[in-house]
Amino acid sequence: MATATSTSFTHVQRVRLLYKTILRIHRGLPLEIKAIGDQYVKDEFKRHRKCQPHEINPFMTGWVDYAVTLSKQLSVSQLKKKSPILGRHLTQEELETFKDDQVYQLHELMQEATKPKVESDSDIPTKL
Question: Are 41 and 19 in contact (CB under 8 A)?
Fold first, then answer.
């Protein structure tokens, strides 16, 4: 029986597999970060559904790199550390390749991710 390889998948199947893999990896994130990450991934994949042919390879490569990096950071050995590091810093060269709207999105994402946690009513202990 032959095994499936990436060459036997259609482009749509490869995109769907990557999308589902990223969402599965996000299950290992803290809930607040998972919610932001899931929404961002969903928006980005939806936004690029009908992207230009020359944008496909950089899009897929970027998301594969993200999935590999995050899965390594969420590995058991990394999570045993007191404060595991998630993500990585972007180089100046990487930032220079971004379009203005991408820089704006990145800035909004950073603001959302670094927002102080607001206690909800359910987090406040009550006396019985």
Answer: yes
